[in-house]
Amino acid sequence: MQVAAFFDFDGTLYSGHLWKDMSDYFRERRERTGLIWTYLLAHMALWPLNLMRVLSDERFYGSWARDLTWVLRGLSLEEGDALFHLILEWRILPGLRPDVLERLRHHQAQGHTVMLVSGGFRRLLEMLAAELSIPHVVGTEAEVRDGRYTGRPTGLAITGRGKVEGIRRLAAREGLDLDWPHSYAYADNRTDIPLLEAVGHPVAVYPDRVLAAHAQAHGWELLGTIARP
Fold it and tell me: Out of 3.40.50.1240, 3.40.50.300, 3.90.980.10, 3.40.50.1000, which CATH number does the structure's domain 4-223 have?
């Protein structure tokens, strides 16, 4: 069996957030502003429902990742790749957390199966994985028809329990026999608790307050400061 190390992307390995990077990119260039404002306002409007517990954390935070596909609508695959490469060089690579990257390198040196697991676009995560020599990626699939993005997600929602299911599906496809009780997971958000609970070595990375409290109550390792409310 293979010991694995699962790394979340937004807020964990990367100090920023992809939705903000995409929004900043298009707003600075005054491109796709209608799509950007529709995306931002639609999701900000859900915040009170989340605070009142009408909308679960998993659905609220997960919608920010899955619905980001809206801003790709109409782009060709080549245009999408160019956008992802630019954001990777502009924001993501300079924004990688050195302490978390050090953990990733340690797992690679130990021969562990390292995997990026995120609600971010799978295509973008593959580009980052190539830079960091990470062999496996689980991410959001953006639907493509006739060589262009439709603006809709497709497949499994990679958030909450969906991250665990996404890993299991990838392992089945690629013939990975994962040793969950001896594996590691690194994540920052309360919605990542199911992933962290699935492994023997959970690490709460720059966690929000809910995840930090859960980690402290269960004796999990904390890496980095408690980040946000």
Answer: 3.40.50.1000
